[in-house]
């Protein structure tokens, strides 16, 4: 779905920017150009960023780690 019509940024592109290493709305905005024109899409863009980061955090927390870890 298009989030930003001015620059043609989709929710998939926002998610991809996060998967590529963006860790905040500011970084996503710099990487994609979302909300850089009229700004009407900023709320939706922030929501997509927030949901995606939350999803990644919960997935990361679900990864089982060994109880004991020793560096060789």
TrEMBL record:
UniProt keyword list: 2Fe-2S, Electron transport, Iron, Iron-sulfur, Metal-binding, Transport
Listed Gene3D superfamilies: BFD-like [2Fe-2S]-binding domain (1.10.10.1100)
Domain BFD-like [2Fe-2S]-binding: 2-49
Required cofactor names: [2Fe-2S] cluster
UniProt keyword annotation of Electron transport present: yes
Key word Nuclease present: no
Molecular function via GO: 2 iron, 2 sulfur cluster binding; metal ion binding
Stated family: Belongs to the Bfd family.
PANTHER family recorded: BACTERIOFERRITIN-ASSOCIATED FERREDOXIN
Protein name as it appears in the record: Bacterioferritin-associated ferredoxin
Source species: Pseudomonas batumici
